[in-house]
Amino acid sequence: MKTVLLAACLTLVAAEAQAISRYDPSRMSCDRVQATIAREGAVILRYQSTRTPGLPLYDRYVRSQRFCNMGEVRARASVPSADTRSCVVYKCKRVDTDRRFRRRIFPN
Fold first, then answer.
1. Rounded CA separation 31/83 (Å)
2. Are 23 and 43 in contact (CB under 8 A)?
3. Integer Cα distance of 76 and 90 in angstroms
4. How far apart are the first and last CA of the chain?
5. DSSP per-residue letters across the chain
6. Which residue, of 16, 62, 76, 98, has the fewest CB within 10 Å?
7. How many whole angstroms separate alpha carbon 51 and alpha carbon 75?
8. Half-sphere exposure of residue 80, counting CA atoms within 13 Å on the CB side?
């Protein structure tokens, strides 16, 4: 029993942590941004705001719906890239349902 417990503890210590990668899309082509998201499943993209200079913006962008939490849906978004002004990607957005009218409402 002690051997099994010790082996389990060593396995947990030796396991590699699955951290999410961070990238700057303004230094990558749009194709490379989309390929990176497709390869890793979910990434954090961090870039400077075009409306407010010096303001960093970031969010988590995903490959498919299965990377979203319960109560979220995959929604279309865009980020700046080195070769285009807006590169189409997807991120998870929380969905609230208006029970009276039975429709989805996407909060900002």
1. 9
2. yes
3. 5
4. 53
5. -HHHHHHHHHHHHHSPP-PPEEE-GGGS-HHHHHHHHHHHSEEEEEEE-SSSTT-EEEEEEESSGGGSPTTEEEEEEEE--SS-S-EEEEEEEE-EEETTTTEEE---
6. 16
7. 22
8. 14
Q: Each residue's pLDDT tens digit in the chain (108 positions)?
A: 556 555 555 554 444 446 889 999 999 999 999 999 999 999 999 999 888 989 999 999 999 999 999 999 999 999 999 998 889 999 999 987 666 665 555 665
Distance in angstroms (rounded) separating the CA atoms of residues 31 and 81: 9
